[in-house]
């Protein structure tokens, strides 16, 4: 059940920032319950007016405009402005934002008695931005692109659950995919490898967006798109600007999720995070219509000023920040070494580098409390979460590394993320492990660490549930050794343990939700005994939208617990 926070409660939280900043780092998780809150103070939940342009201030460019390639919280949110899928997470303003609802399809699908076949019917009147109709053939073609070895590096679920010939490599290489049928223009039928009750959620993934048959090969969609959503691309200068304008062929009568009240969206990319915060605080000119990501830790103290309280947004987190340990690299192939690192990391220092208790809770599990299947445990405890140096040294000595060793950490070139990396570096130095950084541009980070041959010893990254109703979107992508791929790999530990793989199969086969949740929680503990990752934090969401912005709601399934773009708009389109 989604837990909501009343406006007075949130306002009280906002005025409590000063107290929060005074607290030292401590252990703890996100609030109980599933999903995320969707409430704010100061009328930010109001209905937007028609018109105007929303300004988005960003540090980094998006990973890919092509939804078969991109698959991270920020770009998934952007995709919902320009693409539609068979199903989609409900709007952040919905009674249950965790719910999967129809999008291109008339409903969330019909399953056969044996669970192996799912059938969807498309709505009438669907069109691309050029006016061409969207039929089942275009949906099938879009989905089949997920099997292309170069293009299909985004969401893995289609390839994992839909049956396909073993040598199938997508439509450009292998042609038609016989296990997806299109008996007529409005019907599409998927044949699965095994029953998968969450298939309606799979059909909401970005790579279920339709594409004109035969298009999109190679780099065709590197700087272009074929829109099916309410907006289409007007201008794109990589690393600098994205302008979206209305897609005149989008029919709002077919879309119950996107309000699309603004006339357009203007994304300013490549901005310094501190500059973004300064612009939001000042709120001048067009910045009254601006939104951005999380505020920087250095900005938090200034939010005590009462003038910011009516537009301050404070939501619990839904994503786990963790450090992946590459189990194929020596000496990280030794479980005692990985366990030593798990003991040695000063999570309190990582939390402080992230902004303290205002911006993050300390994590000891892979599954966050927001996801069904969470089990409370801590296999590597320490006083104050500052790390158990003696236990770490003991394990390193047992493994034959009493004097420590050198390792390379992949990290992103952003201030907060650098602070996290530095906290880890200093933690491990206490036990003789010398950490060298490999800085990677944010827009290329996931592509790099998701390519095993480019991966170094470790990487600090995060994982967000693709839907919050099951940990099937957490444990298998991160730890199933059979899912390790040459590109787009999410198993950063590259762990391939037969016992874990078998336990994943067993959990996926459980049809009773309560029993399945128990199985996932137990499996989380079983995996962390092998220590392929070090859970670090569950990061919270603290935003400061412009004073003219409204329609502000959280989306646990698309925006990683952050702002859902589908309802955002302006109070007065003439301002700015």
Describe the protein's architecture and organization.
This protein has helices at 7-15, 17-22, 73-82, 136-144, 157-161, 171-174, 199-202, 273-282, 335-344, 347-354, 389-398, 415-429, 442-449, 475-479, 498-509, 513-530, and strands at residues 53-57, 87-89, 100-102, 110-111, 117-121, 180-184, 187-191, 231-237, 241-246, 264-268, 290-292, 313-325, 360-362, 406-412, 434-440, 458-463, 533-543, 549-550, 569-570. With 576 residues, it is α+β, with helices and mostly antiparallel strands. Among the domains are: 83-208, Periplasmic binding protein-like II (D-Maltodextrin-Binding Protein, domain 2), CATH 3.40.190.10; 316-539, Dipeptide-binding Protein, domain 3, CATH 3.10.105. Strand 6 and strand 7 form a beta hairpin. The longest helix has 18 residues, at 513-530. The protein is globular and about 65 Å long. The two termini are 39 Å apart.
């Amino acid at each position: 059940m989604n837990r909501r926070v009343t406006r007075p409660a949130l306002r009280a939280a906002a005025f409590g920032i000063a107290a929060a900043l005074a607290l030292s780092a401590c252990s703890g998780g996100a609030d109980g319950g599933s999903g995320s809150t969707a409430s704010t103070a100061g009328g930010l939940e109001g209905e937007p007016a028609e018109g105007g342009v929303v300004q988005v201030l960003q540090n980094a460019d998006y990973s890919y405009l092509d939804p078969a390639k991109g698959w991270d919280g920020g770009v998934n949110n952007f995709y919902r402005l320009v693409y539609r899928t068979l199903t989609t997470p409900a709007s952040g303003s919905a009674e249950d934002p965790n719910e999967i609802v129809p999008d291109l399809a008339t409903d969330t699908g019909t399953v056969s008695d044996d669970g192996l076949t799912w059938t969807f019917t498309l709505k009438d009147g669907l069109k691309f931005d050029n006016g061409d109709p969207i039929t089942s053939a275009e949906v099938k073609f879009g989905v089949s692109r997920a099997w292309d070895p170069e293009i299909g590096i985004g969401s893995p679920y289609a390839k994992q659950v839909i049956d396909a010939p073993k040598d199938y490599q997508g439509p450009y290489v292998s042609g038609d995919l016989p296990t997806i049928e299109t008996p007529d223009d409005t019907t599409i039928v998927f044949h699965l490898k095994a029953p998968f009750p969450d298939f309606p959620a799979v059909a909401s993934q970005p790579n279920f967006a339709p594409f004109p048959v035969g298009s999109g090969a190679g780099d065709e969609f590197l700087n272009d798109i074929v829109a099916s959503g309410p907006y289409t691309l007007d201008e794109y200068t990589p690393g600098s600007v994205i302008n979206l304008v209305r897609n005149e062929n989008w029919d709002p009568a077919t879309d119950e999720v996107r309000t699309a009240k603004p006339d357009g969206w203007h994304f300013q990319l490549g901005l310094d995070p501190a500059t973004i915060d300064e612009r939001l605080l000042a709120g001048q000119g067009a910045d009254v219509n601006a939104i951005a990501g999380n505020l920087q830790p250095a900005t938090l103290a200034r939010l005590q000023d009462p003038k910011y309280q009516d537009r301050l947004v404070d939501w619990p987190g839904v994503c786990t920040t963790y450090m992946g340990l590459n189990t194929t690299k020596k000496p990280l192939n030794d479980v005692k070494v990985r366990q030593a690192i798990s003991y040695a990391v000063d999570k309190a220092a990582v939390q402080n580098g992230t902004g303290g208790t205002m911006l993050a809770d300390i994590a000891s599990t892979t599954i966050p409390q927001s996801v069904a299947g969470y089990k409370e445990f801590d296999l590597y405890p320490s006083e104050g979460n500052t790390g158990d140096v003696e236990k770490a040294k003991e394990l390193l000595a047992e493994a034959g590394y009493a004097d420590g060793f050198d390792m390379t950490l992949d990290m992103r070139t952003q201030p907060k993320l650098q602070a996290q990396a530095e906290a880890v570096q200093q933690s491990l130095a206490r036990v003789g492990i010398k950490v060298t950084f490999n800085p990677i541009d944010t827009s290329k980070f996931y592509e790099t660490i998701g390519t095993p041959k480019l991966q170094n010893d470790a990487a600090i990254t995060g994982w967000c549930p693709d839907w919050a109703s099951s940990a099937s979107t957490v444990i298998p992508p991160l730890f199933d050794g059979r899912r390790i791929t040459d590109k787009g790999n999410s198993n950063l530990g590259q762990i391939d343990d037969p016992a874990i793989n078998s336990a994943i199969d067993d959990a996926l086969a459980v049809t009773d939700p309560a029993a399945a949740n128990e199985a996932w929680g137990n499996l989380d503990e079983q995996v962390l005994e092998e220590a392929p990752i070090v859970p670090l934090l569950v990061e919270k969401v603290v935003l400061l939208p412009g004073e003219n912005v409204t329609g502000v709601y959280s989306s646990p399934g698309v925006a990683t617990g952050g702002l859902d773009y589908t309802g955002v708009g302006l109070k007065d389109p003439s301002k700015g």
